[in-house]
Amino acid sequence: MIADWRIEAQRYELRDIGSGNCAYMLKPEERGSEYPAWLCPTCFEQGVKGFLQFIAKLRGAGSIYRCSQCKSHTMVQGGPRWLCGEEASRGNADVDPPAQQAKS
Fold first, then answer.
1. Per-residue pLDDT for 55 more than 90?
2. Helices (H), the chain
3. What letter does residue 56 receive in the DSSP assignment?
4. Cα gap 74→62, rounded to integer Å
5. Rounded distance between C-alpha atoms, residue 48 and residue 72, angstroms
6. Helix, strand, coil percentages for the chain (3-state, nearest 5)
7. How far is CA 36 from CA 23, 33, 54, 58, 60, in A?
8. Rounded CA separation 4/1 (Å)
9. Which of 30, 56, 77, 87 lies in disulfide reach of 62, CB 3.0 to 4.6 Å?
10. What whole-number distance in Å separates Cα of residue 17 and Cα of residue 7?
């Protein structure tokens, strides 16, 4: 757990990642050079950073992400919404969208 979670949590906002799912992301003014990551909303509310990690791309069914802490799964159809509500499906759809965004 992070020592002063209240201060750290203020750097994040809850965003739509597609298919009716949400994740916490750094606010635009906080991003700087930090790797763009999605944080599990369940863990975040408990004061823990649980990173949603790409697990698999299912043909015709979307992508599956798993929380590094609570191990919950999230499926996102199509290209998940990323920064500022843009579709992250620019380029190779088989690439983990946050990693793809970091390479741009």
1. yes
2. 5-9, 41-45, 97-103
3. E
4. 10
5. 14
6. 20, 35, 45
7. 12, 9, 13, 23, 25
8. 9
9. 77
10. 24
